[in-house]
Structures are given as structure tokens and as C-alpha cells.
Recover the amino acids of this structure.
């Protein structure tokens, strides 16, 4: 079975903690991603996801240009070690009801894996291959 390290994205997309939610949403849209790691003073302090934006800002009717990502981010970041299997990552996401995990190596954040990344990985190993007519 594939490891999380083989499935994760190594390019970490980050945003400063004092960034307005509207700017974070725009960046996620442009990059076609569902999460950003939140940085403060050079450290990762949380993760903000498209779900956080919808549930904690938009649904509340907040002013997205004044509200910062720090006020809606999830902290601490749920993580999994890079050597674990993609099944372990899937189980952890299900248990925690989340769609993104930070990937660590000896405690250092080195990547991120999303439920979409796992779906793609599981699809590549499933048999038989399903094709579209």
C-alpha cells in the first residue's frame, strides 16, 4: 500500500494569519486548492479550509474583508507521519471528520494530503479499472 509521503503535495501553500478571509478565498480559488496553512512569526499556527470559510464566516454573515483567517482557522493542524499508509490517513480523516492532514517527518511539517489526493491514490490501485464509454 502507498505511503502518505508518496501521495502528499510537497508544495505548501501558506498565508499570513492577519490576511482577510476574502483574500484567502480568492487565493484558494486561483490555485484550485481547498486549504492554506496559516503562518505567524515564521511558524505554522493553523490551517484554513474552504469549509472553514463557508461555515465560520460566510454562514455567519461576517464581513470577509475585515475578518482574518486567524479567527476562523483550525488549530492545531492535524498531522500524520509521512511513513504511514494512505489507509491510515483515510481512517484518521474519517475519525476526525476532516479533509486535510499535515504530513510530518520527525515532527517537521513537510507536506499536506487531502481527501482528494487519497481518492486519486486509491483509484490508481483499484481493480478492475472503470472506464467511461
Amino acid at each position: 500500500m502507498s505511503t502518505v509521503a508518496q501521495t502528499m503535495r510537497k508544495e505548501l501553500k501558506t498565508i499570513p494569519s492577519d490576511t482577510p478571509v476574502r483574500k484567502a478565498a480568492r487565493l484558494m480559488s486561483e490555485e484550485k486548492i481547498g486549504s492554506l496553512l496559516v503562518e505567524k512569526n515564521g511558524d505554522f499556527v493553523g490551517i484554513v479550509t474552504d469549509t472553514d470559510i463557508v461555515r465560520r464566516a460566510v454562514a455567519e454573515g461576517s464581513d470577509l474583508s475585515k475578518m482574518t483567517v486567524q479567527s476562523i482557522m483550525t488549530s492545531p493542524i492535524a498531522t500524520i507521519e509521512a511513513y504511514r499508509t494512505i489507509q491510515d490517513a483515510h481512517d484518521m480523516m474519517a475519525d476526525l471528520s476532516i479533509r486535510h492532514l499535515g504530513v510530518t517527518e520527525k515532527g517537521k511539517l513537510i507536506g499536506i494530503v487531502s481527501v482528494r489526493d487519497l481518492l486519486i491514490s486509491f483509484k490508481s490501485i483499484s481493480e478492475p479499472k472503470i472506464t467511461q464509454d
User: Anything to note?
Assistant: The mean pLDDT is 93. The radius of gyration is 16 Å.
